[in-house]
Specification:
Blueprint lengths: L1 H19 L2 E9 L10 E4 L5 E3 L5 E6 L5 E6 L2 E7 L5 E6 L12 E9 L5 E12 L2 E11 L5 E14 L3 E14 L3 E14 L2 E14 L4 E15 L7 E8 L4 E11 L2 E10 L2 E13 L3 H7 L2
């Protein structure tokens, strides 16, 4: 009985000591350049599996067992740094970037309403970006426009972004599908496999495209393949716009695609132009972009 009581007392004091010895650390991670908060940064107690990630406002909370422990801060494109606590329970970490780029285009869902000025006045678009998985970001997009009669214009896209990356460049792989019906006569669809080489603020695009083109009145149908080339540029201006131009070159036809897209905070806007043969469309869009967390990130943020 005495041994059992001694064991219970020992366990009680041991677990009480472990609870009392937990020290809550609060802090925030900010960008060195503009002092903005950085979400998604991994904060790890050095040497043990105890960590969390910063919230959307850059803040974090973490219980540590040693007031003199060190915290390790890491994030894609950011210098991994170790910061000794030295008895502090509040800390502001100023992040320094290894590269002149970031991958904040992950974990987003965007919804757009859009209108075609020439042929298809009503439409919408949805874009989804995955978390950082398989050493990249998987993106999906689908857009549809119509005049509720004989015209429709739809586009679908799947992209594996930043799959090959270092501080000087990264590479994206993309499949893009376009389908148009126009004035009960013209029908065509095209799909292309494209590669983007992103060097700092410039994008170079190359790909292979396949076109199926039909004119119903003339009972004309032709398929052809060709190359696709393009270029893009990111501008350090208000709303941070990106401009992209692509040209599909087929045996007897040219396909033109152009886009300018930018935004501020959660608001996103774009202008798109498309032309093939006699078909033209100029589309304007406005939408909202929302971030999300995975289940694991939600659990870590509660630690």
């Amino acid at each position: 009985m005495t041994k059992r009581l001694s064991l219970l007392l020992f366990l009680f004091f041991y677990f009480s000591f472990q609870t009392w010895s937990q020290i809550r650390i609060t802090g925030k991670v900010i960008d060195k350049d503009d002092k903005s908060p950085i979400p998604g940064v991994q904060v790890q107690e050095k040497g043990i599996e105890n960590g969390t990630v910063t919230k959307t406002d850059g803040t974090f909370e973490l219980n540590v067992s040693d007031p003199n422990a060190a915290l390790v801060f890491s994030f894609i494109g950011m210098r991994t740094e170790e910061v000794p606590l030295k008895g502090k329970n509040q800390i502001v970490f100023v992040a320094k970037w290894d590269c002149n780029k970031d991958f904040f285009d992950s974990q987003e869902i965007s919804f757009f309403t859009k209108s075609g000025i020439i042929n298809n006045p009503i439409g919408g678009e949805i874009e989804i970006a995955s978390p950082w998985i398989f050493r990249g970001v998987i993106k999906g997009k689908y857009g549809y426009q119509t005049n509720f009669k004989e015209n429709h214009h739809q586009n679908a896209q799947i992209e594996f972004a930043h799959s090959i990356s270092n501080c000087d460049f990264d590479i994206d792989f993309r499949w893009d599908y376009r389908e148009i019906s126009w004035e009960q006569n013209l029908r065509f669809h095209a799909h292309s496999f494209e590669i983007d080489l992103n060097i700092h603020e410039i994008k170079f695009i190359a790909g292979y495209s396949h076109l199926n083109f039909s004119e119903i009145e003339n009972q004309f149908n032709k398929t052809s393949s060709g190359v696709l080339i393009g270029v893009g540029k990111y501008f350090s201006l208000p709303m941070y716009p990106t401009a992209i131009f692509k040209l599909g070159i087929y045996q007897d036809k040219l396909e033109y695609q152009a886009k300018i897209q930018g935004g501020i905070k959660n608001l996103q806007t774009f202008i798109k132009f498309y032309k093939l043969n006699d078909y033209n469309e100029l589309s304007l869009g406005i939408g909202i972009s929302l971030g999300y967390k995975t289940k694991r990130q939600k659990l870590n943020s509660k630690d």
